[in-house]
Amino acid sequence: MNAGLSILQRTGFCNSPGAQGPVIQGTEKHPVRRSVPFWGITRPESMTALKNESVAPLPAGVAASGRPDGELVRRVHAEPPHAYRTPFARDAARVLHARAFRRLAGKTQVFTRLPAEGLSDHFRSRLTHTLEVTQISRTLAAALGLNVELAEALALVHDIGHPPFGHAGEKALDRALRGNGLSFDHNLHALRIVTWFEERYPAFRGLNLTLAVREGIVKHSRDYSVAEHPELKEYFLDELPPLEAQLIDLADEIAYLTADLDDGLDSGVIALDQVREAVPLFRGFHDAALAGYPHAAPKVVVYEALRRVLNVLVTDLIEEVRALVTALGATTLDEIRHAPERLATLSPQIEAARMGMKDFLYASLYNSPGQEHVHAQAEKVIVELFDFLMAEPGLMPEDHQAQIPTEGLARTVADYIAGMTDSYIVQLWERCGGE
Ligand code: MG
Fold it and tell me: How far apart are CA 433 and CA 431, in angstroms?
């Protein structure tokens, strides 16, 4: 199968004869035997050879085990095994059926849904973003022979702790809590939701998820120290998480970088020429799609280019993880946990492309001058409602008020606000006198 072709050739990009890319210096981790010139991106031949001969999955032992008698499936409250569903499949279903999960439909991904914005309904919400991350995560885990059900559960739950108004909302809620000696972190809030806040079972609070899913919620995107977070010590803080959890962070990035280029272009906030200029990976595929489909509608050519960008990012990640695990010689999860560093990374060349896309989106979309008033309005709504409810806690629903004695007033108000959708918080803020 296509032996000798680089990832970009095999994934549909036609290279121009004679085009010379820069020569990349090899490192011990990423040896470069001979560079394959490719419109600015070169692939180490060693990696190409490796991936062509090894579409095989990783050794079975490196996958997180969902065995019913294993440590990773331990739940805080013991439950009998299900007759025909695995523990991680049950966790994925528990997340899918949670109230906090359904509310992701009404939460901002990038384009804040304040009524004044008047944007279309087909932009990503945090729910559709989550479903895209889940699709990518399942693909990654399946290709690598990892635990697909664990990857799915982790992807479904990865943004469940996000407050309304995206990152602007998270920052505002954190600032409000810091004024009360607390802080807000969406990963830790997700853990709080699944271990305590959701009430669906008569026998216990929370969703009673397995240890592997709770560990992945905490550690998929960053490390926490035991010194700062003694309450998290059961989650193996001095070890790396399983690959299924490590992959979620990049699956998330791949999903949102490509989707945000799509939504950004569709909204008119960014222009096609800007993307072509700033993102060579996109430009290459866009040119190839234009050449291959000269009569296609312009937006369909963009979709085709974005589809190929996504495919290259995912394929590169699969190949890089496979190469790193192979180089490490790991055959067990324990060896993954004690590797010198996380193994879910992109190759240096594609990583550079990813960083370029990210820098561009931050400058041109997330923090663009036109977004300032949206962020400012989001912060105003959250901070004013937080202050209002701190002064008038009796306006919260009774089940929230009941938590004040054990959780404290500020945390209870933050829990209440974090659970709101964008439209609900604006309605409540207006009812409380906001304008
Ligand atoms: Mg996400």
Answer: 5
